[in-house]
Every structure is written in C-alpha cells, then in structure tokens.
Write a structure and sequence with these properties.
Length: 155
C-alpha cells in the first residue's frame, strides 16, 4: 500500500498539490476499502477513525481533487449516492460494474469489453472517446443461487 501512496503522492506533486496528512488518510481509507465503493460519508467516517480532527468538507474536497486527477472515479449506481472507486493503475478506462437489484451487491469487471464498440463510435460519429462506463443491473450469482436453493426446497 505504501508504494501506491507514494505513486499517488507523485501524481499530486506533478499537478502542484501536496499529499497532506488529511489527503493521505483519505487515500489510505480508499486503498483499504478498494472493493467497497464507498460514499463520501462512508469515507469520512472511516477517515475520522484515523484522523479525528478531519472535517467532512475536507474529505469532500479531497475526493473531488482525486477525481479531477483521475486517481479515483466518481460513480453512481442509480441510487442517488455518489461513490468513489480507485482507478486501476495504468488502466486506460474505467472498469465495469454488475449491480444486483435484489441485494445491492456491486461486482467489478476489470476487462475492457468495449474496445470494438469504441472503434465503431469513433469512426461512425467522428467522436474522440476519452473514457466510458458500463453498468449492468440484474440479479447477482449469490441471489440467483439463493433463489435456486429456495426453489429446490419447495419442490
């Protein structure tokens, strides 16, 4: 984790920002909870455990800065809550998500599934794509398996 923080520190420095203790605490929380798709409030509560003096506004500003610098991606899964997701190092694009409409679980797809689609869009509409996001809404394997188990027991 320290080497990742060092690389993020370099990204901040190259954009003329410093890795303040508050920013470092925020980045550490995002790294520790990389799979969780945390809201700003979630991040704030976790950062508060590490740095009790930090305020919610500071966490919001830090998340917005990290979003501007493409260190994190701000995402919304249709529930009205913005969540923050660390961008994979070296990734050309944002990763894709599978959102379960039953339990709310969010799974990630790291593989870029849209290369062919991008080529078509760029050529046909003369549009230069900088990034894309793809979210599938459906029933996750956990709920699907649970529903299958329930059906088998009823039969």
């Amino acid at each position: 984790m320290e080497s990742r923080i060092d690389r993020i520190k370099k990204q901040l420095h190259s954009a003329s920002y410093k890795l303040t203790p508050q920013r470092e605490a925020t980045v550490a929380v995002l790294l520790e909870h990389e799979e969780d798709h945390l809201s700003a409030e979630d991040v704030y509560l976790l950062v508060k455990e590490k740095a009790p003096e930090i305020g919610l506004a500071t966490v919001y500003r830090t998340l917005e800065l990290l979003t501007e610098l493409k260190i994190v991606d701000k995402i919304n899964f249709g529930d009205g809550v913005s969540r923050y997701d660390l961008r994979q190092e070296g990734a050309a694009h944002f990763h894709h998500h599978l959102v379960c409409v039953e339990c709310g679980a969010v799974d990630e797809i790291q593989e870029d599934l849209l290369e062919d689609v991008e080529a078509i869009v760029e050529k046909r509409w003369n549009f230069i794509i900088q990034d894309h996001r793809l979210t599938f809404h459906g029933i996750c394997w956990r709920c699907h398996d649970k529903n299958d188990d329930t059906t088998e027991k009823q039969e």
